[in-house]
Structures
1.
Amino acid sequence: PNRLVRNLRYALGACAMSSHDELPSGEPGAKDVTHLEVENHGLSPQQEDLHGEEHVYGDEQLHGDDYAEYSDYDMDGESLADGRSAAGVSHYSRASRADSRLDRDLKDAIEMVKVSDSKIGALRKMHAQYLLKRVEEALGNGQVVDPNDARSTMRLLDEHGRERDSDSESESSSLADSAFVYKAQAQAAQHKYSHSGADFDRMSQRLEKGLGLGSDTESLLSMEQGGRRASRAMSETSETPQEYQAGAFNGEDLETGSIFSKDESEEEDEETDEEKKWKKKFKRRVKINTRGCITMGIWVICLIFYFYVRIAKTMDLGAYLAYGIFVLVVEAMGASATALYGINLLLNPVPPEEYKNQPSSPTGKKAVKAPPVTGSQGINAKKKKMQWWRRKAAKGKKKGKKGGSDDDPEDPDPDKLSVEQSAASFASSQDDDAMSEASHATGTSVISGSALSVGGLPDLEKDYHVRVLIPCYKEDLEIVQATLNAIRDAALPAGCSRTIYLLDDGKDPKKRKWCDKLGDDVVYVSGRKRAPDESNGKSGNLNNALSQIYPAGCKIPINEVVCVMDADQVAMPMFFIKTLPMMDDGDDVAMVLSPQLFNNTDVHADIFNHSNIHFWEYMQIGYDALSFISCSGTNFLIRANAFQECGWSPTWTLTEDFALGMELKKRGWQCRYQREYLAIGEAPVQVRNCFQQKSRWCKGHFQVLFDREHCPIFQHKLSWLQRIMYLQGVWSYVVGAVCTPTFIAVPIVTIWAGVFPIVLNFWAAIALTVYYISTSSVLLYVTRWAHLEPLWFSNVGNQIMWFTYVKAFIRGVSSATGAKITFKTTLKGAGLLAGTAVGDVWMPFICWVLLMASLIKGLIKMVTATTLQNTLLISLVWVVWNLIPPTLLLWYWKFGQGRLFTALCKMAYWTSTLLGFAALVLIWLFYPSTYNYGQALGDSHFFLKTQRVGKLPDKSVSWRGDSLLQEYAINFNAKTYDFGGGFMTGGEVGTTKLTMPIAWTTGMVAWGLLDFEEGYKKAGEYNEGLRYLQWSCEYLLKTLIGTASKPLNIKVIWQVGNTTEDNLYWTRPEDISVARPFYYVPVSLGASDLLGQMVGALAASATVFKGTQPALYDTLMTWALPLYGVAIGQYQGLYLDYLKKPACVTAPSRASAIVPNCNPPYFPLNGSAADTYNSTTYNDDIAWAAMWMYRATGDGGYLDDAKAFFGAYQSSDESKFSESLVVDWNNNFWSVAILMASQTDLDAYHFQAQQFLHDWICSSEQITYTLRGRAWNANKGDFGVTANAVMLAAVYGKSIQNDRRSLFRTKAERYICWAKGQVRFMLGDVVNSAMVGFSNPASQTGWVRIGKHGPNQAHDRGASCPSPPTQCNFINGLYNPNNNPHEIRGALVEGSSTGFDDWPDVRTRNESRVALENNAGFTAVLAGLNELNKPTWPQCLQGYGAFSKDPVCG
């Protein structure tokens, strides 16, 4: 039927101009027909062609009887019965055989209209046109009109009217209503029997315009077609290859020179003033997109907040600050691209029917809004209908002369459907199957521009002639056929016409021969000579044809329109009906754009982002509102005069469409955007072609950027907003080339180098959360949820193509220096490149390998790490997220598309979405806490006060009161001594007071006050520290029985209380009223270890008080000096040796063979704690005392003594105890080493100090790490020992922070960081806090943290006993399952001594015991960390990757 439609056009032209017409009788029962006498006009070029020996109909060359056979088949492939009469159709007698065939063809065509009354198509339209033409000619010649002509037309139209009335609710296509136009016109013609003169002229003009049968149009068509046939005949007989050219649009043989009426052409010529360039200017109306504005407003606020936090709160990266700044700049680049994209969300264009005055319009008629489109089944549902039409277009004109008899009756061949029938069928399917789901965000289909006629067809102001240009190169013939057939069959508004030009740069003879068979409305153009330096083949191809159609110097009428269709873009039947009316919106509307869709892509597996939803559905709508032109290269209309003004298609860049839009905008032209998908194409499917296409686009944009003449920023005719908008496309490629590889590299760098570009803290968690959500709301802004997945694929495509962008950027820069960039066509169909894509996928493959290796390494590191690093966890999530795009690409490259790939893409989509939220959750769960070390220091002081006994100077501990007051008056040798005050030791010995641990704890606290004074003062705890020292020193002086003037007679009280009896009852210290024994040792028996600890405590405390309390300093030094003399004198020894029983009572003789049964030395306890607090060395204690005497006095002699005793320790058997690496009251060697290194700066002591810290930090035979990172000493594994070692690390680290040696400075940072890590562990960074009662403020820590609370059942009598008057005992105290009624805040529990991270918080277990000495080094290090701001903990987390070299461990 489509072939018959074209043949019928020839027939009508010939019949209308034949020398005589003979009208037979009409339908049965009709009255006799009055004959019309028609003046002989002679034969037109069309008619002459029909009389030739060869007839060209459709794609067949018909010879002899073939034509007769061809015309005997109806549109369903069934033979027509002979003798059928056509109602009201005149029979024309001709003598020639060709006339007979034409007669039969016309008869059969009209019969087919009868037998298919349910379908209103082109044949019925032509039937009505023919009858009305007869009426017009009869009236014009003053002859009698055959009433059968009018009645037959009326009958046919009435039949369709009834059909329309019964099915009006389901009709969505304006073409389906077109018959009403002809009905009205037929009624007017029938009514015109009695009219003449001006009335007839007016009616005739209306008919000509409504029917598209104007004489100028016919004349133009006939002359153009005749010229093309002659050209083809010459080319076919030529012996040498010819250049196939297009005829000029206004050939010399045309009378008017244009398709405008004479009056309009003259008016056009009179317009010379630049200000009157356009008679009618387009008035663009926009409305605010409220949701888009709110989204962008929130994003801007979040953006400002985010970058404030990033700069002010997250850049404390130390040595890696430059890296952090670089990543911040990259983030700013990404934000700028988001801002440019978000501009398009602010405004929406207003459809014309919403603002045009009603009922007046340019045509004086109401604008009619098309029915709303319902349903939303996704892009693929829309595509199914378009794919149906593409299949039909591909089949069209390919069947044999019997046409499509082998087709599926459920999917009829388009050869059996007329243009309007196909359009009506396609358009009606839009309602049922969500045809425009991928169309407007408003969900309505609107034909904008001039008003619609009553029947639904656009009634345009101008009769446009559309020149359809289809450039092709090496595409398969099947692809080109589908495109050309579809655009040829697309319906035109009334009065408009078209000519199609196939621009074959591939010079394919098959395409030429096929075009020659189609008819005179198709022109084959080829044979152009390419310039050697041509950079854009498509533009060259277009310009070659345009220069032939519109010769240089010609004035092009405003109604000449060029349509550019890529060779694979199959237009829908509604294409021109939806786009051409927009040209009527204003004479300055130069271009009408429409989106693209592809039949061979699945939106659920579109990894190359062919669908480009964000561009078609959101950016182009914003562009339309902002009066910005972004040409898409195909499926667009452009006025020929505007095209000519721009110098035709730009040839200096690969992206001629982008440049053309800018050229139009520079000249003040406007553009409209038709949101409906009106064409469906074929996307490249091979990886090589996809990369090549994207590369060409990218290189073309960079060409524009680096071209000084065309760079948007220098185009003064553009507004600054327009310049920025034209830079948006280029900038998006720059951002993709920089941001994507950066964000791929960041987690890899973190895993392997241990460097993260941002400090993760509370502020970072807030900023990242709000910024991520707000940015996602902009980039994933959708009007329907189905668009989320295609927008995600847009990000996937950018990640896949980043290296292509990098290469394109380099090529773009080189082009600015004169390097040539070659245009490469994206081939489709069977002509796809078969070459390998290794050159495209090698970089994504390398990224995939690096990411997989990083994932494996990160997982191993997370399992084996000594501490849980949140940056590592986030990096692992980030790595998995980055792995998704290259994994999809490699799968696609290796295995192609299919259901499995679609399922993989679906899984990747949801996985990627979940990973984004998982990263945010991990930040909130595990971001590093900012611990308040000052608060912890105060809590530790609180614990020390809970251990005081005697007459308390204050009531700062509400549940403690005066206790053990009986010890203020103890009779000994007929004298009364005051042993009151001091501290309970705690731990195993409970309320017993032991001088050795009290003295050692005092010395450590004094050391902290001296070396970390600022930390104490910063926390407001300095005075509290002084009060502790004063209370402790007063008690230590009470333990000395004797006078300082006679030091050898001094007896030292080393214990008060009976540990055996103490363990027999469980009660409050305040309730102990019995007299308690005390234990002493005469210094003459040797007590160097005890005296050394006491001298160290007194001298260190004296140093603290030296500047503030001179009297106290003198008192302390008065006792320290003689005690030191005794300690280093002739009575050196251990203070408990006198209690030891010998191994054997009697020694065996040397000659005896009998070995006596000897036991190791042991202590007769008798209630003492000698077995628990048994000292094993004394040289280290004397060296400790000597160093503090040196610091207190500055006397070098004490330093010499310290060196001597330090050496004596190393050379004696005592040195074996240093191997344990334990630091406590019994092991002072490493404390002395740190003290001597920091005070003398001698290499020998630096070596010892660094060796000790190396063994602790890097693990050793004695030191191991628990699963969660606690350093644990196998010889003594309680928290107190670790805290003491950490305190030494902080002291030594501070002492060498500003050392002249860079290695020392680097190590200093490592020591301090290690100290911070261990203290954070004790405070509850990854497990429960080991410090009773300590918790960070809510604003300083994560929402969900494993170790946010400390022990609740600390092993302490005072804390576990109920308040008075309830009597405390084992039942309601020690064995009470409830938490302690009193919080012994600040106490560091003993913890697990077996290397486990967790311990039972049970009062009866040793792990929950608290002791004075546990808080000795812990208190000092808390002050140190409160002072040592650098390095910060985030800085400490940097630089410990797989390839990083630890400055301490190597």
2.
Amino acid sequence: MYSICVWERDSLSSVVFLFSYQMSEHSLHSLHDATGPPQALAVDEEQLDVLGQRREKQCRSAWQKLKAKLQCSGPRVKSCFLSCVPVLSWLPHYQLKENAFGDLISGISVGIMHLPQGMANAMLANVPPVYGLYSSFYPILIYFIFGTTKHISVGTFSILAIMVGTVINDVEFADNKAEREVNDAEMNRVILATQLTILCGLIQILLCVLRCGGVCRWLSRPLVSGYTTAAAIHVTIHQLPLLMSISTRAHRGFLAVAWMFVDVLYGVTGASGGTLVVSSVSIVILAGGKILNSRLKGRLPVPVPWELLLVILAIVLSEHLDLPGQYGVQTVGKIPTGLSGPVLPTLSLSKELLLPSLALAVVGFGLNASLGTMYALKHGYRFHSNQELLALGVCNTVGGMFQCFAVSCSMSRSMVQESTGGKTQVSALVSALLILAVLLKFGPLFEKLPKAVLAVIVLVNLQGIFAQIRDVPKLWATDRLDLLVWSVSLLSALLLNLDVGLGAAVVFSLFTVVFRTQRPRFAVLGAIPGSDCYRDLRLYLKVKQIPGVTVFSCSNPLYFANTDVYFRSLREAVKTGLKENNAVSPPGHQGAVPQHCVILELSGVCFMDSTSINMLRSVVEDFEAVQILIFLATCPDALFSQLKDHGLVPDCLARCCFFPSVHHAVQHWQQIQKDTTEAPEETEKKEGCERRTAGKMESRRRIGYHVQRDIMDEIEVDSLAQKSNIKTSLSDKFKESMRGSGPRVKSCFLSFIPLLSWLPRYPFKENMFGDLVSGISVGIMHLPQGMAYALLASVPPVFGLYSSFYPILIYFIFGTSKHISVGTYAVMSVMIGSVTERLAPDSDFITPGNDSNSSIIDIMARDNERVKIAAAVTFLSGIFQLFLGLVQFGFVVTYLSEPLVRGYTTGAAIHVMVSQFKYLFGINPKRYSGPISLIYTVLEVCYLLPETNVGTLVVSIVTIVALVLAKELNSLLARKLPVPIPAELITIVIATVVSWRFDFNTLYEVEVVGLIPSGLQPPKLPAFSMLGSMIGDAFALAVVGYGIAISLGRTFALKYGYKELVALGLSNSIGGMFQCFAISCSMSRTMVQISTGGKSQIAGALSAVVMLVILLWIGTLFEELPKAVLAAIIIVNLHGMFKQFGDIPGLWRTNKMDMLVWLMTVTLTVLLNPDLGLAASIAFSMLTVIFRTQLPKYSLLGQVPGTDIYRPVEDYNQVIQIPGLVIFRSSATLYFANAEMYTDHLYEKSGVDITKLLAQKKKLEAKRLRKEKKEKKKAKKEAKKRAQETLEASELPNNKNTIEVAVVAEPELDPCTDTGLPKAVILDLSPVNFLDTVGVKTLRSIYRDYGDAGVKVLLAGCQSCVIENLEKGDFFNDKVTKAILFSTVHDAVLHCQEDTREVRHRTHTHTHMRAHAAVTVN
């Protein structure tokens, strides 16, 4: 074992680590044992479980969790009811004396603001101004009952109002009787606004029921800032017509706000002079008043209500000067008195309003959450997100029934409510009563108010939102990815309007999280000399590799998007290590034991999906085959559980291959080398971790090492290891990438045309025979599959033969994979078929028949048009693939995880099978398109089953039975047959002969292939006029085709994905000119090509020669082939895809998240069709990455007795918390989606509610200041009185009295002194792999808040990329330096303990220096 000793050296109290060898196993003591130096054990994870007494996980079933959740009791029901109606909890305890006056003043002030803002925002919502007053009354009363935030002001808000107004302009009323009777346009708009508001409220209530309060976390601060800035621009442009009294047209859709701005520019010349004067004067008054308020903020008890003063002044002048009559100034118009009665709308437009109402619900709650959280933190109470969802939902639902439009909170009103002394929502109740008085008595007074004044009020109140543009320089300096989120949010809201723009901004923001983790930082680590710390070799000059050891670190979770990059980099690092850093074997021991060890440092890997775990298994097996040991260090508990569920532990890696730190693993490797040198006869017993015995485990416990070093913060690490500050600029990188030379140009050219590299060195004797047999076998398979898949593409079968010839030749020249067989593929064909049938349906080619009442389909014209469409979409998909390949965008396919690809191909196989039913049964169902079209097709087929052609059905059944039997025979005789039996070819030949001999087409009406022209097609450019209508389909084809090829190519060592993308792009684009349809690779043909001895793409060229012979001379022989036979071939060949349903049980046992991806992919593909289904599946797959990081596990860490290892307290029985310290760790990274949860769990786990503590401190501080002020006044009076008495006494002739006053100084007490507070909080950031601007601000606020409470905050285990994020985010300054960053948690613990000893010494000295003071007054 080893021990960790701490002592004071000289007078500087320098703390030193000492790791020393101990022979006795019974000398284990606690770290705080005063009888001797604290000691520790060098252990792996298996021994650590025994030492710390790891608890077994209590796994509860889903049913048990549900029962516990639904368990009902009296107190629980009461608590639930009070949490749903918070007013019943806090109103009985309302402190009348303390809060009533402040709430009264605040309520009146905010109520005055509600009046002009409500009417102005109603104009934004395209409804009469009085409905803005209704929206400022009813929701306030409801929020008073259900709301939890004490300081926000709920009511109308300009951004929500403009969203409502945009929807009103865009949506048209359905033509039904109830609404035809409504002739008033204003009432139509009111009805539409109330329907939208009610739907918005219902969605918010539904989100509350589903406990989706955390959805607001997806609205990051850069997103909200950019989106609200765009919304402010929308509001401004919509107010310009009112400022100038001009009319504009209503625009909708893409760039609607830009077209409206163009209309404003065109209408400037017709602006009303009177309105312009009113607007200008109003802007000067209101803007000047706001500036005056800000400058006199400290002097004024209540801000001057300039909006109300401006409204009163405008009404008086409008009435006195007759502005509407004399100058044409538009006014508000009639305002009815009284309240609106409840009306339940019909919700007839719920389908059209669903998406806008969802956007309203999310935006409204997002604004409420951001503002409510800010005030909750400031004043020391909790923000209950789900209850706030319920409160807003009820406000909008009930308010909609009273003809209100959507509401949320307002920043300006909330600031006034707080600054004027508002303490509770009683102030909101006062505001509601004031608005009620206006509605009942004073409403008609506002009828002469100019609309331009309301527009000015809206615009001037947007100044705070436009000030957010100042965020741009800060984001450029701190986090440019967050700046990109800000910019995309702004542009998407401007270009796509506010509802769709919000969805696009949220999707892009979530995509940036995936992007941050998709390209992680990999590093080979080395040891800092004289320490047990390891750092990146590239960043530190003095860091050295351990001989024979490659320590490979990853800073991100491993999943489908970065798995290939990670393991490719790992193999390259190990290859380099074997060449440059291999261990030197002693003489006579070469080859006896492994000479290299790979240690994977996994502290930043919070999860791995099934794709990455399977690849890890492959790497472990490959390394063991070449005698390379592999250890895993700092593996998180959740990750270890995943490895165990997948069977990787203990099948490939034993528990003893896991170590708590890199240094423990290194020491174990060095001990293996040492033991081998001392006892060579034991080497065979030590090969393979899974074969170690308990005796060897005991011997490993005696491994000792000695390291002596100071406690190291990040400053000392940088100094000791000499961190390099050399960074390559973007221009230098660009110059290096563009640098040209002869060898480099030649290499680039040969890599573009791989044929020129490998063909001159082709080993003719070794490979020719295998390639010849393989080429003929695969060529024979191309014939039936090409014709069959042409039916899937809805084109004549001969075009399937063309697609099996031209692309193969092109791939032969440009392809890189030696074994895959490109050509027609079922999934690609069915996607082509959906395009051709959508753009060229049968209904477009119906011509009159011979009878007057009959009609026929012009099959020749239809097929010609569909061939043009198939060629055009193929050409365009090839262009997409070529472009993506040239810019090396091949990584886009990394978003296609293995469960997604397998689920997608299974769903596509269902589409393929359903599409062949019409050929199997000889029926002609209708063509459906769009979502759930597959369901309609199946119902149509079932409806037409009585019309089945018996002859076609018999042919189908016989063919399927024959093919299944032949397939089974092939599998049984696979080892005995040199070449598989070509069952499809034999079936086609027999079926063609029988069909021709018995004339199936004439006698039994069995549909046959028909005319097959001989020869080749000349090249022809596609119809470019069609390309605009198929861009989405072409891009989906490009991605799916490449994804299928790359997933198959990975199996056969495909190295350069982007080169494969270029090859496929050329195959499809050139093939499209020869009227081919899109191709990819086929698993069945590829397996045949490999099994028959194919070694290179010569086999593919020979299969193309076979197809050429068929096209020139043999093709016409298959004209009598029944299409049912081709459909049967397709159905039978789908059996491999349908076997993928067997993935479900395996994924359920190993990775339920991947199983969910598989199931959702199948469901979405079936319901939304292959193109939209693929996009939706990729989006859902990426969403699972967000979900895995959004809900991490939070733990308090304690020390394993006698070690420097820290583990979660709840997982181990013997783990001990360090007294006075809180060590906190999150299992995932820290960013906008979980930043709020991070702080909440820190407060919860530490038992310290810092917000309440700071609020109490502020109250005590304010009380102390008031007391001091009062005492100063009292002292002044007493001093004045004493001076008067002294003066009078001095006038007496014989007065010799002496007054002595003894004053004892009272000890100064900190108003926030709390013995229960921890001395320090240590944040273990080792799992954190990046910080966005929100994450940096969260850490900054934690440091500030705990610092204000007198608690020190230290950060431990930060990766280099996290330190870089902190530096860019301006986390460090003169007061906060890198001295708070420590290499390990134990460094931070010892630092805190040393500071505690110094503080105790200083406190003891200070106590003895206290004294009494005496003052004598004569």
